[in-house]
Amino acid sequence: MDLLTRRKFLLASGVTGAAALVAGGTAYGLADILGSGDDRPEGAGTLVLITLYGGNDGLNTVIPYGDDAYAKARPTLAYPPDQVLKLDDGFGLNPGLAGLHKLYGADRVAVVRGVGYPTPDHSHFRSMDIWQTADPVRPQPTGWIGRWLDTAGGDPRLAISFEPVLPPLLAGATSAGATVPGGALKLPKSVTPQLLKGFGTASAQDTAALARAAGCFTDLSRVQDLMDDVAESAPDETPDDSAEEPGATATGGAAGPLEQQLEQVARCVEAGAVTRVYSVSLGGFDLHADEKGAQQGQLERLDKPLAAFMDRMTRSEKGKDVVVAIYSEFGRRVAANASDGTDHGTASSVFLIGDRIRGGLYGEPPSLTDLDNGDLKYTTDFRDVYASLLRTVLDGEPDRVLAGWKGELDDVWT
Amino acid sequence: MTDRQTVSHVLRRLTFGPTATEVDKAEEAGAAATISTALAHRTAPPGPGLSTGPPPAQDADRDARRKARARQNAELDRWWLRQMAADSTAGEKLTFFWHGHWATSIQKVKSAALMYRQQQTFRRYGTGDTGPFIRAMLRDPALILWLDGQQNTAKAPNENLARELMELFTLGVGNYTEDDVRAGAQMLTGWTVDRAAGTSKLIPKRHAQSPVTLLGTTGVTDIDGYADLLARHRAHAPFLAARFWLRYGSGAAPSAAATERLVTAFGPGRDVTAMLRALVLDPEFPATNGQLVKQPVEWVVGAVRQLGIDAGKLDDKQLKQLSAMMRALGQVPFRPPSVGGWPAGTAWLTTASAQVRLRSAPNLVTLAPAAVATLEEAARPDRLDALARLLVIDRWTDRTAAVLAPAAQDPKKLLTLGLATPEYAVH
C-alpha cells in the first residue's frame, strides 16, 4: 500500500465511533493527569501500536535463512546467510533492522512467526480492515482498541493517534480515541480553549444527540489540555532537522515521519499522560517491483526511530511499562514475481518489544513448501496476540473485546 | 412546534438542507404541500459527461490508466457535489440514501462510468416499486464487480452477493437461512460484466441450470424469480422502514406502531415515495427533531446550500476543497467503507470530526460573502436570530447563545462559529 492507498484506506474506513458523552466541562490539568488518583493506575501498561501500511514482506524481515526453500523461491530477492542478522541457527533479521537486532540480543523482543487469520484476503483494504477490527468474517464498524476503550470508560485521551485521520482501530461503538496530528490539535487561532469549553458545556435544553455533539468539544478541550501539558513538561530542545528522512516523509504521508510520531509518544509517556494506547504508522511497504533495496530502506526507517524510542524508554521509569507491537496487513508471496518484487501474501511475523517482554522466537514458523496456493499457512491467529496485549498491557477483558475469542499468547511475558 | 419549525424539520430531513427562503415558502404553503413538492417526481439531471480522454488501452502503462481513472473519478465527484447542492427537493438526498444502502465503492469497481450507471438505476427505480428496483440491481455491473459476482460460477459459486443481498439490501438477518444463501448464489451464477461496454450479461455456460428451493419456494430458476421473492417477502417492507427511519427519523429504531404505518403506506405496490411520505407525516416524526446526527455529506452540502454558495459557479479547486472536508470528516461519496455502508448517529461525533468542523467553517464562510452580508444587515441584537434563520436552526441553547453573543459584532466570525456549533451538527 503506497502513500495514496494508505490514505485511501484511512478515509475509506470512515470516521467511526462516538465520543463519550462528558457532562460538565471541567478540563483536566497536568496535576490531574499525573495525579496518583484513579486516572492512571500505578504500573499500568502502555501499548504503542505501529502499523506498517502496504503489506511488509515478512520473509525478508524475519528471514528463514536456514531453509533451502527460501533462497530457492527467491533467487534474486533472498539474502545470503552471511548478510542476515542472526536470531538463531535458522532465522535472522533483515540487515536494515540492526537496532531491533540489538534489542533482541537484550531479550526485549518477541518475534511471533506465522501470524495471520483464516481465509486470507489479498486486498490491502479488506485485510487491514480485518487486522484493525479484529473480525476476519464480517465488516465491523468498530476497531479492537475502540471496543477496549468502550469498556475502559470511553475517555478519548486513553487512546491517541498522531495520524491525520482517526484509524478505524481506535473507533468504538460508544466512544473513540482522539487524533492529534503532529502532536498538537490543528485548530484555527480563533478557536480558544474558552470557546471549546463554552461549546462543551451541557445545557438542559439538549437532546441526547445534541448533548453528544457538545460533549465532543469537552473531549477536545481535554485532549488539548493533555497535549499542552505534555509540551510544557518536555525539556526545551531544538528540533533535530537531520533526523528527518525525506524518504520517510514521502512514504509516511501526512502522518509525519515515524520519528516525529514516536517523539510525541515519548513525550507523552515521560509526562505520565493518562493515555494507554498510542497508534503510529509507517507506509510504503507495497513493493511489487525491485523490492530488495527499497524494503531494506523502509525497514531502516522503522528501525532507527524505533531503536531511539526504546532507548529513551529504558532511561525513563515510566518507559518500562511500554510495550510496542508492530504488524502489517499481510506478508507477501513466498516466490518472487517477474519484476523482482513480491505480490500480496498472507501470514507474517509480529514483533512485541519492551521490558515486559521475554525475548525470543515464538510461533510455529510456516512451511515454505507446504503452501496454500503459493501462500504461507498461518500458525498463530492474530487474535491470540491481541488478546494477550489486551489482558496483560491494557488490563482489559479479551473475550468482551474480541467476540468471545479464547486464545492467547502465554509465554511472551516476563 | 410552530408551523415554521414543522416545515423546517421536514425539509431538513427530506432534503440536503433547506435555505431560509425555502423555509419561508414552505411556511406559506403548509406542511402537506411542502411534502408533496419535495417528493414530486423530478427528471434526472444531465449526466457528468465523463471525459474519455486518451483511451486507457490495455498496453498503456499502469500509471497512465490510473491517472485517466483518477481524472474521471474527480469529474464524477464534482458533478455529484453540484447536483446535491443544487437540489431543493428530496431527490438527491434519496439517491444518496440508496447509495449508502446498496453501498458500493469505486475503490473496487474502479470505474466512474459504472458508478454513474448504478446511480442512474437509483434515480430511475429508487422512488417507486422496489420489485423492478431489485431486478435492476441484480444486473448492475458495479454491484456485480463489488460483490464478486464475476467469480460466481456454477462450478465455483461465490456467495458474497447473495448473502449481502438478503442481509443488507432486502430482508435483514434472521429472515433467510444458509441454504437460501447457497440457493440464491446459484441463481446469480454466470452474471458477468463487460467493462468496456459497461454492461452485464448472463453467460449460460457458467450458470447453474437446475431450479432451486429458495425462501420456501420451489422451482426458482433465474434472478428475476429470486428478485421477486425478495420483494414479496414479508420481512422486506419492515426492513426498509427501519433503514429509512435510521437516516430520516432518529437514531433509535422505529416503534412497532410507526413501522406498521410505514409498511401500510408502502403497500402491495411497494411504493418507496409513499413510505417516505408516511415517515415525515408519522405522529412520531415531530419528536425526532434534533435526534439525528448529520452525516458529513449532509453537513457540508447543507452548509453550501444554506450559505447560498452557488456550487455551479465554484471552480474545480473550490469543489475539491469541499470534497476534502468530507474526506476529513470520514464520508466520501462513491467510497463507502464497506458493503454495510456508512455508520449513523453518534459515530460521527468524535474529537476528530469536531476539529475538522472547526477548521472547515472558516473556509466555507470565505465562499459565502452574501451570507456574511445578510448577517451584517441585521441589527446587532438580532444577529443571533438572523444566524439561526440562515442556518435553519430552531433555537440556540443557552450554552451556545452565550458563546455566540460576543461574536455578534463580527458577522464573519459569528457565521463561522455558527457552523461549528453543536446545534448545527445535529438536525
From TrEMBL, chain A:
InterPro entries: DUF1501, TAT_signal. Residues 232-254 are annotated as: Disordered. Residues 232-244 have a biased composition (Acidic residues). This is Secreted protein.
